[in-house]
Amino acid sequence: MLVCFWSPKGGSGTSVIAAAAALVLARETDARIVDLSGDQPAVLGLAHEPVPGLLDWMRAGPGAPTDALEHLSLDVAPRLALLPAGVAHGHPAAPEAALAVALDADPRPAACDLGRLDDPAVRAFAEVAGSAIVVVRGCYLGLRRAVRHPAITDSIGAILIDEHGRSLGKPDVEDVLGIPVLATIPARTSIARAVDAGVLPTRLPDSLGRPVHHALAVIGCFGDEQAA
Predict the structure, then answer these.
(1) Shortest CA distance to 53 belongs to which of 65, 43, 68, 42?
(2) Residue 214 sits in a domain of what CATH number?
(3) Mean pLDDT computed over every residue of the chain
């Protein structure tokens, strides 16, 4: 199963949510995090940018072997492997849709960081992968961008980052976007500190892990388990 996270606006917390989702999945089974935004090495506290990556695999064209993806994989936490973005040089020869098919055939669940989803090829990945979740804040401008984004029609739900002082809450977001808010995550300094210190894989704050687990349970990532 592929669960894709995106946002119409930078700085919404998409990469952190995607990393948290992958870490939560890895508590239950072997899992992967698919980085198509390029931010995961920093979020996960890696000392360097891994290369080669997915962009290199896609540049090999439609004939790129699926098993080559394993050679790109990097262990970043117990039972969690990162498929890094790599470094972009020109346009990929194989569309991201082909990557989605290859990943979906693997029994391991994966959280996919799609960033702003402003590239048509990355949108193709999301369409094939399914289970797209938009990450938003209670910001009128951000919601305005989200509702106008073509990917919103294919999104199964939203995760709301709850910032102190915002007047727009869960009912407002659901009303504007027309999709359910799967979880609300408070914007706390403990989360930012874990990311800044590079310890998110080993010290996932409960204020982040619990609502992300709830969202994943709602969409059926844990089988028959019900969201708490």
Answers:
(1) 68
(2) 3.40.50.300
(3) 88
